[in-house]
Specification:
This protein is α/β, with parallel strands linked by helices. 31% of the residues lie in helices and 25% in strands. The chain is built from 9 helices and 15 strands. The strands form 4 sheets. The chain has a 6-stranded parallel beta sheet, with helices on both faces. A 5-stranded parallel beta sheet has the order 1-4-5-6-7, sandwiched between helices. The protein has a two-stranded antiparallel sheet with strand order 2-3. Helix 7 links the parallel strand 12 and strand 13. It is globular and about 65 Å long. It binds ribose-5-phosphate.
């Protein structure tokens, strides 16, 4: 990757994404700034970016953070970093947030609810973010609608599915619901594979998920289930179970953001999934069951494509 002019760009790490920020800084040859942070006795956050090691203010300040774990604290920290960066930057402030919390509440499902995702995006913008780069956002349309600056959603389902091919033979790329169909289609078309989806119902009040069988041609086939988020693991476990009940040979999961709440991992393994392929959009350790794709390459390339330094 071509290196950038060091004085043009500064990378600022948030607490949840230090390694990702460091890798991006290394790949671009940009300085990684130190951040002094503390929590006041009453629980309020304080941050100060050490711009002292730069002779001039950077044209672009790039704040890298991700909004899980501790999404509410991480969000406040990100807003404070963005504002501090904005006050110092001569041209544009960029937020790189691979996982954006609250993204699933992207419309009114029930009367009286907020559109939480709109609130999150408008706060990022008002804190100072001119540009927002994220990864496999739940609703790309809502991102464009609610972020009033320049936004990029990096698609990665093709990278995840490609990584699954070493475990599977000519798999069907399967979305666990219609909402994930674009992800499955994108990967399948890029890799010349077949794709399909399941019909999912979620009870908006209890949160309970059920899957109704669609015409699946999964018998004797390998399956890679593609989704954006694994939270409790319920959706993936049900989808995997459904595939295996219908005669699938093998199931691997390719999901971008692994929150893995509670016993999600156990649920997924017990459902018969052989491997989970995911990204480091949320800090996660590799194990014999989990393969992690590092996002720093694709994020660095995208950043370099959209900024001019
Ligand atoms: C929902 O529409 C998302 O794309 C995921 O399928 C969902 O958030 C997964 O949640 P859980 O793991 O709790 O079933």
């Amino acid at each position: 990757m071509a290196k950038i002019d060091r004085s043009s760009l500064a990378i600022i790490p948030g607490s949840n994404a230090f390694n990702l920020a460091k890798n991006i800084a290394e790949k671009l040859g940009a300085p990684l700034l130190d951040v002094y942070r503390k929590i006041f006795p009453d629980g309020e956050h304080y941050v100060r970016i050490d711009y002292g090691k730069l002779i001039v203010s950077p044209k672009y300040s790039v704040v890298v953070n991700t909004l899980y774990p501790k999404q509410n604290d991480a969000f406040i920290e990100t807003l404070l970093l963005l504002n501090a960066a904005y006050l110092e930057t001569s041209m544009k402030t960029v937020a790189i947030i691979p996982y954006i919390a609250y993204s699933r509440q992207d419309k009114l499902f029930l009367r009286g609810e907020p559109v939480s995702f709109e609130v999150i995006l408008s706060c990022l913008r008002s804190a100072g973010a001119d540009m927002l780069l994220t990864v496999d956002i739940h609703s790309p349309i809502a991102l464009k609608r609610y972020f009033k600056g320049f936004s990029i959603n990096i698609l990665v389902s093709d990278l995840l599915v490609k990584a699954s091919l070493k475990y599977l033979d000519n798999p069907v790329v399967l979305a666990p619901d219609k909402g994930a169909l674009n992800r499955a289609r994108y990967a399948a078309l890029k890799l010349d594979l077949e794709f399909d989806y399941l019909i999912k119902h979620r009870d908006r009040v209890t949160g309970e998920v059920s899957l109704e069988p669609k015409e699946l041609s999964v018998k004797d086939r390998d399956i890679v289930i593609v989704d954006d988020i694994i939270s409790t693991g319920g959706t993936i476990a049900l989808a995997a179970q459904k595939c295996l009940e219908n005669g699938a040979r093998k199931v691997v999961v390719a999901a971008t953001h692994s929150l893995l709440i509670g016993n999600a991992l156990e649920k997924i393994r017990n459902a018969g999934v052989e491997k989970l392929i995911t990204t480091n959009s949320i800090p996660i350790e590799e194990t014999d069951f989990i393969e992690v794709i590092d996002l720093s390459d694709i994020i660095s390339s995208e950043l370099q494509r959209v900024i001019h330094v």
